[in-house]
Amino acid sequence: MERFDLVILGSGPAGEKAAAQAAYFGKRVAIVEREKEPGGAAVHTGTLPSKTLRESALFLSGHRTRALYGVSVELDSDATLQTLMARKNAIAVSESKRIRENLQRHHVTYLHGHGRLAGEGRVKVEAADGSFTEVEAEVVLIATGSVPRQPEGVAFESERIHDSDEILRIDNIPKSLTILGAGVIGSEYACMFAALGVHVDLVDARPGILPFLDFEIRDQLAHAMGSLGIHLRQPHRWGAIVDTGSSVTVELDDGTLLENDELLFAAGRVGNTADIGLETVGLAANSRGYLEVDDAYRTTLPKILAVGDVIGFPALASTSMEQGRVAVCRAFGFDYKQSVHDMLPYGIYTIPEVSSVGKSEAEAKEAGIPYVTGRAKFAENARGQIQGDLEGLLKLVVHAEKRTLLGVHVVGERASELVHLGQAVMLMGGTLDVFIDMVFNFPTLSEAYKYAAYDALGALAKSS
After folding, report:
1. Using CA atoms, how far apart are residues 125 and 248, in angstroms rounded to an integer?
2. Rounded to whole angstroms, how far apart are CA atoms 66 and 388?
3. Alpha-carbon gap, residue 238 to 252, rounded angstroms
4. How far is CA 308 from CA 114, 184, 210, in A?
5. Smallest Cα–Cα separation from 217: which of 25, 375, 403?
6. pLDDT band at 407 (very low <50, low <70, confident <90, very high)
7. Which residues pair with 111 in a beta bridge?
8. Contact predicate 357/394, CB 8 Å
9. What are phi and psi of 155, to 5 degrees?
10. SS3 state of residue 361
């Protein structure tokens, strides 16, 4: 039986980065992947494919062109989703190749097959032909990700009812779509399909979309989604979901009967922990399929670790990578990354994008921290006007006494890039004066930081 220092189940962002980190410090590592290519949901069904569809929808639908020049652009009547997603396959191939090359460069053994725990320190790998290979490991890292939640009573076998992994495999672009769940995934897909001219009903039991966002950013996004033609149905619970043969109907708790061509169920994901042999070592996932870990990402068995989406919140590719690195550093005693920084940025790829880091205004108020806010609208920014991003907004939450940044919140195109400038200042403990002193290229959206800082300085002057 071949022996490794570390065996990893899953080659998504968490698994790949953990493997490279351990191998970099001289450990013998194997990674097990049961899909045809490495990369996990991030490469093949979720993160990158959905972002590719977003860019395709914006470009091919003429959405930006309409906003800038008033030019009406329509998709060909015979356009298919797979036509729009043509770049997705090329990007997936390129990213899978990069992952393979990264693993090879670090001399990581790649085992293709279904990996299952076979006892402490042992993993059995079942190949496609039914043959088995068993390996030994000092440490096992579970990085198997998550899968869409599929509750009973929803006929996912129907050609008209989809989960968030399967939606990208449909061919024809529907004329109308019901989306159940206005979380990150549901909101992103609502925007993408609406930009393609699809009538979208977005249903959620909560009173507002994405409640973890700063209220102003959330309201601005909701307004933009309404401008796209998305019908927000909140707060409403849904009842019977019926495939009529020509459409899908959904009954809401107020008696409304929605009827659209197809339906996307986007109400949550669960840990991908079924059939990985947890029972052989006495481990059990919780009711959502997630594994519980300590601050070193150890399960109740110290030599079995878990990272990424399989441990639940925050379930972001960016944090999963860091968790993988930290887990192996802690497990093998490397004097390197010892924790994942608690200042996590969020990027939400709606239309427009949303990104935030740090405290919202409501969180600062609830914590009793003296604060002021500063805002800059993209409509008053030269670059924002040039690119037609008139709904964009940058908001700073600032400590009223220390003048340091408590939070940065952005809605608008390139929000997920812009937020990192504020994040860097926060990490360095910088004050508003950093933005006041900086000389920004003109015209740029980044310049909005200076004017948001000036706005915050005005608020400080009024409060003193």
Report:
1. 41
2. 9
3. 4
4. 19, 17, 21
5. 375
6. very high
7. 32
8. no
9. -80, 75
10. helix
Phi, psi for residue 402 in degrees, rounded to 5:
-90, -15
pLDDT at 69: 58
Measured distance CA(141)–CA(18) in Å, rounded: 9
- Could you read off the pLDDT of 338-367 as tens digits, one per residue? 999 989 999 999 999 999 999 999 999 999
Contact 137, 115 (CB under 8 A): no
By CB atoms closer than 10 A (0-12, 13-18, 19+), residue 303 is: middle
Closest among 220, 181, 206, 160 to 356, alpha carbons compared: 220
**What phi and psi, each to the nearest 5 degrees, are found at residue 376?**
-140, 125
Q: Check residue 388 and give left, alpha or beta (phi > 0: left; psi -120 to 50: alpha).
A: left
| Largest pairwise CA distance in the chain | 74
List the strands of the sheet with 238-243, edge to edge: 238-243, 248-252, 257-260
Domains 2-146+270-332 and 161-267 share a fold: yes
Residue 382 neighbours by CB under 8 Å, 6+ apart: 442, 443, 447
Tokens of 122: 């042992």
Please name the residues in contact with 193: beta carbons below 8 A apart, sequence gap of 6 or more.
57, 173, 174, 177, 200
Q: What is the CATH number of domain 2-146+270-332?
A: 3.50.50.60
CA–CA distance, 153 with 259 (Å, rounded to integer)? 18
Q: Which of 164, 170, 161 is nearest to 147 (CA)?
A: 164
Per-residue pLDDT at 232: 95
Tell me: domain 352-463, CATH 3.30.390.30, correct? Answer: yes
**What's the pLDDT score for residue 266?**
94
Return d(Cα 440, Cα 309) in angstroms, integer.
38
- φ/ψ of residue 42, rounded to 5: -55, -35
> What is the secondary structure of 103-131 as a DSSP string?
HHHTT-EEEESEEEE-STTEEEEE-TTS-
Tokens of 8: 């990893």
Which sign does the torsion angle of CA 10, 335, 313, 46 carry?
A: negative
Q: How far apart are CA 145 and CA 150, in angstroms?
A: 16
Q: Give me the residue spans of the domains in the chain.
A: 2-146+270-332, 161-267, 352-463
For residue 223, the tally of other CB atoms under 10 A from its CB is 11
Q: CATH assignment of 161-267?
A: 3.50.50.60
pLDDT recorded at residue 62: 60
User: Whole-model pTM?
Assistant: 0.91
CA distance 305 to 309: 13
E strand or H helix that includes residue 391: none
